[in-house]
Amino acid sequence: MRTNLFLIRHGEAVCNVDGTLAGIRSDVGLTERGILQAERLRARLAATREIVADTLIASTLPRARQTAEIIAPALDLPIILDDDAQELRPGEADGLSIEDFLERYGPFSDVREDPYLPLSPGGESWGAFLARVGSFLHRVIREHAGETVVVVCHGGIIDASLLIGLGVGATAPTRGQFHTRNASITHWERERIIGVDTWRLNRYNDNIHTRDIDTAEQITWARLYEGEGAPTAPLPTEEPPEDA
Fold first, then answer.
1. I need a surface site. Which of 120, 135, 221, 230 has the fewest CB within 10 A?
2. What CA–CA distance (Å, rounded) separates 133 from 153?
3. What is this structure's pTM?
């Protein structure tokens, strides 16, 4: 039984541009460019049908919820809102600029020494965030085993999925970081291979649908991939044997 989990980061948000820590109180959603990124993703999914999903879940933060609302027609699914798909919760720092945060609380690098130090009072620590993401992903795959699930979420959720899925086990933030792009697709596939339940990362940071935003000509998805399926689908020789 195969379970497919597609994690989609929200489009460019106002907080990404103005440099604020936006939680549930201060998140005001997407920029015009972020809306356009989500619309490009919707056009791609509608034309290619590369993701035929059974369930669509979205973070309750406005920037993710708005992205999900834009792409939902291409998936023909209702949106299930889930608080556990939120980004790391900033607590009292919600709405502060990075400069104001640093002046008030100091550098976030302190969590390298104490991974259970909250971002600010009432906020979430990196260790608690990783635990929440792991619990959330486990719940999703347990409740939707054998299905294809799309989760519209945040860069932190996707980064945490990589740490958890690849078994890195980093409790504190690592010095090297992932660079998850807005409106990008990350695809995890779970199946039993040689008697072992295995996660395979099929793609990460797939945002090719946004590459034509500043160009004169748009990608014509229907013509480009008509009859060919998803451009990143595994070749037949890459599939595990049926008796594995």
1. 135
2. 11
3. 0.89
CA angle, residues 156, 157, 163, in degrees to nearest 5: 90
- 39: Cβ contacts below 8 Å, ≥ 6 apart: 70
Q: Which residue has the tokens 């595994």?
A: 234
**Tokens 């689908």 correspond to what residue?**
233
Distance, CA of 52 to CA of 4 (rounded, Å): 10
Write out the chain's pLDDT in tens, 244 residues: 899 999 999 999 999 999 999 999 999 999 999 999 999 999 999 999 999 999 999 999 999 999 999 999 999 999 999 999 999 999 999 999 999 999 998 876 666 678 888 989 999 998 999 999 999 999 999 999 999 999 999 999 999 999 998 887 666 666 677 899 999 999 999 988 888 888 899 999 999 999 999 888 888 887 776 554 445 444 444 444 444 4
